[in-house]
Structure of FAD-binding oxidoreductase:
Amino acid sequence: MTRPAPDASPYELSADAEQRFRELLGDDAVVTDRAGRDDYADPYWIKGDRSYDSSAVLYPSSTEGVQAVVRLADELEVPLWVSSQGRNNGYGGPSPRVAGSVLVSLRRMNRVLEINPTLAYAVVEPGVSWMELHAAIAEAGHNDLLVSVPDLGWGSVVGNSLDSGVTYLPLGVDFQAPTGMEVVLADGSLLRTGMGALPNSKAWHTYKRGLGPVLDPLFVQSNFGIVTKMGYWLMRKPDAYAPLFLTVPRTHQLEQAIDILRELRLSGLIRGVPVMQNTLTLASHFPELLGPMQAEGTLGEEQLDALADASGVGRWGMRTAVWGDEVVVARQVERITEAWSAIDGARVDHHRTFLRDEWDQIVDFADKVQAGIPNLDMLESMPPGFGHVGFSPAVPLVGSEMVKVVELMESTVKRETTASFLVGICVANERTAVVVGGFGFDTANDADVRDAYRTVKTMIREVGELGYGEYRAHLDFMDEAAAEYSFGDHAYLRFVERIKDAVDPKGILSPGKQGIWPANRRTT
């Protein structure tokens, strides 16, 4: 059964409500001018289209400030949309689903609250970026600790985690690193999850469960509360670290490569989160070989084969790494190389193993990311005006299924656009990968931008017919992605709506996030 469209009509912030927020936070923490609000607009959205505009940006600087904002919003029935750093580009950025919502930016809550070197974890506020956490660990003298980081280090540790953002070290597998949250609820009260529910808990950030149901996942990709504090597990720096790059020379070998990769993951020879990308996407890793990222799909199959051969990156290339004892690392590299050699013409590049005291010698982008060194190097491969959007289903690590999904996504892009098909297969665990597939476009070309969002909605429907859905949806098609999860007449969505109505009866927290609408905006 198709569910009726929600009421996404814009909200208008009254002058009285604006003044109340100013009295609460101070004028410097309330921004209403267009330029200030546009700092929180999606840079890849249609230029001049204000469908997801906000009415104000608030900057609380403490948990108590967030509680006060929420209490006032609840009193005045003001919809809030929360972001940590607001770097969620490609997924809508920090823009609100309901136009006119008041943005709550947590950038000023940027303290690293604790670094525990014995148990290898940190506790951070939501405004702390990966770069800031990495720097804080170094400044505290804990050079034996590593952070599992994403490709770009400017985002929030909390924000990325709460949107199921991928990181690449072993603790990135199945999002293992986040643990123990402090959450402001819609009535302004404060909740601590897991062992944190125990006053003066000593195990809050060391044990992921507690007594009774585990609540932490309820605040991932949801609109049930605002996380103001979170633990994040760290990793001991290994004795040796060997970054690897594995090639797949031709597209027809992808099925074989995925099946080999699955067995390498299940055997434990490959850990962490490997990423396999097609030739054009690899420009983000090898701009010196492939040039900048390309928005236009001007190359045919023979040309792509020639580019893959000339550059040496293959039609598919995978970055991964081995961490551990030096002798064991060397043996694992041998075993991986032996397994990959079953692919005709494939190659395993292992240019160096870094020892524990050689981290300062790591310079290549991918090597840094897999060593827990946050950076912004990938941005150098992006030409001015390059935007991107994608569709990211979770697909089992079975070669035939992976090929089926990738080929369908690619055919949709070629049929509906003139763009280059860009895709990365992020191996989230031993049995599943998230296929981050889509394309780039020129953000100055309104027609291309509109085509991009329309095409992804087509992909959502077509891949949904194969039984695969988004693991993380862009603002503009959260409802379409959620609609695919329709088993039992949308039993899942109806259940989370009941939770939403119970914990946020006035529907003030991020209405519409990931397709979860409050009762006052659901239509029948």
Notes: The longest strand covers residues 432-442.
